Structure formats: structure tokens, C-alpha cells
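Ticket #224: bound-state structure for adenosine monophosphate.
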Amino acid sequence: RSVGKGTQAQLLVTRFGIPQISTGDLLRQHRRNRTELGMIADDLMRQGQLVPDDLVNKMVAVRLCEPDTAAGYILDGFPRTLAQAEWLDAFTPECGSLPPTVAIEIRVDEALLLRRITGRRTCPVCNHIYNVYFNPPKEDEICDREGTKLVQRADDTEEAFHKRMQVYRAQTLPVVPHYQSTGRFRSVEGDGSAETVAAAILMALQELRAEFPVPILSSPSGVR
Ligand code: AMP
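RESOLUTION: The complex was predicted; output attached.
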């Protein structure tokens, strides 16, 4: 079973042809490129702590101005704090305007989540995500497509998991009532097959977009 937000975001990418903006992936990229942000993020991520809001917001602001976001985008792992959600609500990019953000929560049982996280393996070449318990590769620890050895993320240990859960409860959970209060929120059950979860997300998205339509795209200053 592969019901994580990353996997679900990838399905939406295929379905709608819009990009996935994963703050976790962007931060890991910074870390690989040894940028200043990557260096700051490294220790925090390893410990399961959040990277400071202003740094993450700035990174998202830059990414949202890339031309591929014109028809929409999926934010994956962002906003993760109330301050990030409020920043996003108030944010007007220099390159145009943003449609109202809608939020979808995927609920998962904590014991299941632990196995999903400690069992997770990724192909370093094609980024395909496997799980040794729920969705193993044909050959142990080897990518089906690339034949490369799979890797485990440094923060996918049990210790970091417990820290991340603690951080989630304290810092990310307040984001839920924030979106609930605006109505731009749905919660779906994540304890099912990837297809079942995807179907629930699509239904939630349709409902949300009926209520909060995306304005017809224009190119204000000919930027896009
Ligand atoms: P993820 O790949 O979404 O599980 O994120 C991995 C790690 O990157 C998190 O545990 C945080 O340390 C960091 N991170 C990702 N997104 C954010 C965010 N929106 N705000 C702060 N830190 C983040």
C-alpha cells in the first residue's frame, strides 16, 4: 500500500499535468547541491524538526513563479505551520496571482504510518517510492525499473518518526482548523489502497473546486 502524500501527489501530476511542489524534495535538492539553505536544513531534517518558516516560504515563493505553475500546482508538505498557511493566504507573487488554495488532509493510523515510514525506500535514479512491507520491489532493495540499489531517507528512522509526530501535533495540526474555518478543506481516509485514496482525493477536489473555482487564467503583464 502506498497512500503517502508524495505518492498521491504524483498521481495528480499524471492526471492533471500540473507540477508537484514538494518542500521536502526541494529541501533535499538544496542539501544535495550544498546551498546555504541546504546546510541549514540538513541537521533539522535529520532530527525530524521543521526548517524555519521564513526560509521555506522564500523557497516556495521562488518556485511558484516558475512558468509551469500557470495552470495550477500541487503543494506537497506545505504549509506545515500556521505561520506558513497565513503567509500563503497573503502571498501575491510578483509574477501574477494565485488561485485560492484548497487543502486536503490524508488521515492515517499512527501504527500504520510508522511501518510506512520505516519501510520506505526510494530509487535514487527515478525517485520511484517503494515500501518493504506494503509495496516491495521484485528483487530485495533493487529498483524494478532502473536496477539500482534503493536508498532509505536519513529521517525515516523510528527515532525521527517519533520526533516528527511530536512536531506534527504541535506545529502542523493547527493548520487543519485554519483551513476548516474557511471551508477550503476536506479530510480523506488514507487507510486504503493507493487507488481508493486517489479516488477519495479526486472527489474531494471536485467538491472544493465547485465551491472555490480557479479563475480563468490570464496573463496580467504578459509574464506567462
Ligand atoms: P517530507 O519529505 O515532506 O516528509 O519532509 C521532510 C522534512 O523536510 C521534514 O521533516 C522537515 O524537516 C522538512 N520540511 C518539509 N516541508 C517543510 C515545511 N513546509 N516547513 C518546514 N520544514 C519542512
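RESOLUTION NOTES: The CA atoms of residues 48 and 166 lie 9 Å apart.
TICKET STATUS: resolved
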